[in-house]
Structure formats: C-alpha cells, structure tokens
Amino acid sequence: MSAIVLSAVAEPTVWHDVPSVTLSDQTLRQRKARVLAQMRRHGYDTLIVYADKEHGGNFEYLTGFIPRFEEALLVLHREGEAVLVLGNENLKLAAFARLENRVIHAPWFSLPNQPMSNEKSLPQLLQDAGISSGKTLGLVGWKLFTGSADDRSQMFDLPAFIVDAIRQAAGPQAVVVNATAIFIAPDGGVRTVNSANELAHYEYGANLASTAILTALNAIEPGKTEKQIGALLTAEGQPNSVVMIAATGDRFADARLYPGDKVIRRGDKFSLTTGFKGGLSSRAAYVVGDETELAPEVADYLDVVAKPYFRAVVSWLENLRIGMRGGEMYDLIERVLPKAEYHWHLNPGHLVADEEWLCSPVGPDSQASIRSGMLLQIDIIPSRAGYAGASIEDTVAVADEALREELAENWPALWQRIVTRRAYIRQQLGIVLPEEVLPLSNTVGYLRPWLLDQRRALVCTAS
Hints:
463 residues; alpha+beta; Creatine Amidinohydrolase; Creatine Amidinohydrolase, Chain A, domain 1; 2 domains; four-stranded antiparallel beta sheet; 12 helices; Creatinase_N
C-alpha cells in the first residue's frame, strides 16, 4: 500500500437542500412480491411482522410508515392479503399505507390510560386477522438471533403479551417460528439488497448526515459546549437513526448519553456521530492544532492509532467488491489492524437501511457474499488504552454496471454527486475505489486527526 501522510487537502464538497427521493409504487410492489416469494420458499402460511417506534424497519419496508407511540402488527398471508393491527393513534395511517390492507383496531397497543375497552380479546382479534390453527406462522421482530447454543427458531423479540395471544389464536396445532431472517439475513434477506430507487432514497440520508458532520467538525473550538456542536447534527427536521454524539473529553459522566453543557478544552478527545435513514457519519479525534498540543503520554497518537486505523479503512475501501465473502473482509482487517493489538470487537462493516445497523455479512468465516445493491457502513472501531479513538464511519453502496447505469439515467444529479465524491477520494485522498463502490456520504475516507487544523487530513501517497 502507499505511504500514509498528513497533508494539506481541500475539504470534500457537501450538498445542501437535496430533495428527498420517494419510493415508487413499483418499488413497494416489488418488496411485497419478494417477501411473498420467500414465504413460499420457507413454507410459511402467514407472517406476523411486529413494529414499534424503535423497531419498525421490517414493518415499514412494506407499509411505508412506523407506528408512532404504539406497537403494531402486519399480518401477511401467502395469498397476498395484508391486515394491519393498529392502536388508537395509528388507525388513521392504514388509509395511507403503501400496500392494500384491511385494518383491525387493537387498543392494547395504545398508550397508558387511553381507552382500551374492546368486545373481543386480542387472540380473537388475531383470529379475525386470519391467524388460524394448523398453519405455519412466521414471527418477525427486528433482531437476527445467531447464537449457536440456542434454538433460534423459538426465540421471539416481540412483547410476550403478543406472542401469547398469537399462540392462543393459532392453537396447539400451529407451528410458530422466528422468521426475521426473511427480511434481514445477510445471505438472502430481502432488505439486504436495494434497487436503484431505494439507493436514491437512502442517499438523501447519507448526504444529510455527512454534511452535518463536516459542518460540526468545522465548528469545534475551545470554549464552545457540546450542545452547541450537537445542535449542528440535526438536519431538515429528519429523525435520527442513532443517538447523536457530541462528546468532549471523557464520555458518559453521570451516565449522560447526550450532548451536555461540558465546555470544549484544547487537548480534549472529541467524538461526533449523527445518522439518518440511509447512512451514518462519525468522527473521533483530538481538539488540537497539531501533535505538540497533545499530552506527552499520547503524543504518538498519529502513528499508534490514526495512521494504522486509516490504513485499515483504505484497505476496506480498495478491496470491497461484488462477490467477496464477508469472511474475506474480516480476515483482511484482522491482517491490517490486528484485533489483539487494536481491540476492535464488532463487525468491521455492516449493512444500512432505515436502521443504522441492519445486519452484517462481515464476520469470522462468513460465507455471506457482498452483492450488488448492498448499502454498507465502514465500521472499524480501534481502542488503544489511554488514547482517543479514531473514526471515519461513512456509507457506501455496491453496484454492478447495470445498477450504476440505472442510477445515472434516472437520477443524474445524484449520479453527479457520486462522480464528484469518487474523484475527490482518488485525487485528494489517494484512495482508489473499485468501480462498483459508490460513496453515498460526502466524507468517505476523510480523516482529520487534529480538529483545530482544518487544512490537513491523512492521505495515501506513492511510497
């Protein structure tokens, strides 16, 4: 690999006021068709898809909305009938759902002390939704259980009162199993691969997050508070897909997760994170102008943490390709940034969608392949005792030639943003992306270790 140096570079271009891309009716029809095909393949008569505000991605994939305030169920039968089971404050949304449905009112899903009287029990209402005896029922939550010591088919991350009601409605002859893998298994889940329309839809959030991150990075200076920087991590009224971070110095004092009144000081560690549907951006570095302002015990941060981490990110970006096994990427990062020395613990890369973390094809010995249409987040988190972290988490898509051509033809402004990002990454940062790797974040590969020096970033140069 090329040598890594700290060099003067231009900042990446960011785009403000980019219009959202709406998912088309055709996209929603294709989504439903894929789910029905998987139901038939796995022998499910009915899927019961759970949602609440925090865990609504699989439900929203088919309905177009999440149930604000409440729980909800989508009961999908293999013939295609969809039944929405909704609480008090979401009943009105059934008329706006992105799939044809009939609706059943379940007041038990509503907020405390709202009207919960009903003539029928919850099991009886679920029978009205078509849950019946002698069928194979797939329950879909949000968590993909992968532990080898458990019977994963019988682990359910739905509230117990709902699972109990489903079992009562279906009777002892029904087969009830966990079917979340239909949606998010990394080796075939329907949500793991995106169409051109879906990538265009998600690029909006990746652009938004990375624009906010760069704006916040440029605003960091001693004397400001975490709240002042954190205010820059919200954007265009969009809901965050992650708990935002604007943290100076040591984190989690008094169990605080959110930006507070702590004042930024020269020499502090600093962490920044924000994310929206389609992408997260994160940064971690020091509030200094150069290494002379670091405490003596961390004065070698650039060589001990930042450069090795950057080398790993460059390796990840330059080697990502369609058909690559997740285990190959894991092994690559293990070689470049050994876990025993740099103490990273999670998957070095995962999939993104409405959620910040959908699932991950990257793991030890993973046979899951990188496929065209996947949306991935660079997520390598080194940890060296006493040092600040290093982080340039951002989002890229992987697209074959046909998918790239469709994006360029139907969303030319988006495609020009991708072209501009790729050129910046190559010309300014010296990172050579494979042609199928499309940066959806504006800040892919952009690492400023000294946050008070806005001119310099790490780059690859010919050795």
